[in-house]
Write a structure and sequence with these properties.
Blueprint lengths: L1 H6 L1 H12 L8 H9 L4 H34 L4 H13 L14 H10 L4 H24 L2
Amino acid sequence: MHDFLAGHGYPALFLLSFLASTFIPLGSEWLLVMLLLKKHDPVLSVALASIGNYLGACTSYAIGSYGGPLLIRRVLRIDEAAQLRADRFYDRYGSWSLLFSWLPVVGDPLCLVGGVLRVRFARFSLLVFTGKLARYALVAWLVLNS
C-alpha cells in the first residue's frame, strides 16, 4: 500500500491528507516525508497536503453545521438557552482551539464542534488552515534539515 501511494505522488498526498482530516483514522505525514525524500517539490508538497487536510476539516465542519440541530437536540439533548450560552462562550474563547485541529484524535471533533456551534466560516478557515499549514511546514522543514 505504501508503495502504491508513494508511486502516485501528489494526487495521493492530496487524497490521503483529505481523508486523514475526516473521521477516517489515517495519517498523511509519512507520505509527505516519503515524497520529500524522493526529491519532490517541498512547497508544492506542503501546499497540497495542507489544502487537502483543510478541505477534509471543512467536511467535518459541514457535517456539524448541517447535522448540528439533530446532534444538539436529539443526541446531546441540549436546550436552546444552554446552546446560546455555549455559542457565546465558544465564539469568544473556544474557537481558538481550532488552531489545534491538526492534532490526532481531538482535531476532527474540534472541526465538527466548530460547525455545530456555527463558528464563522472565515474564522474557522483561518484558524484551521494556519494550524494544518504549520504542521506540514514543520514536518517538511525537519525532513529537509536533518
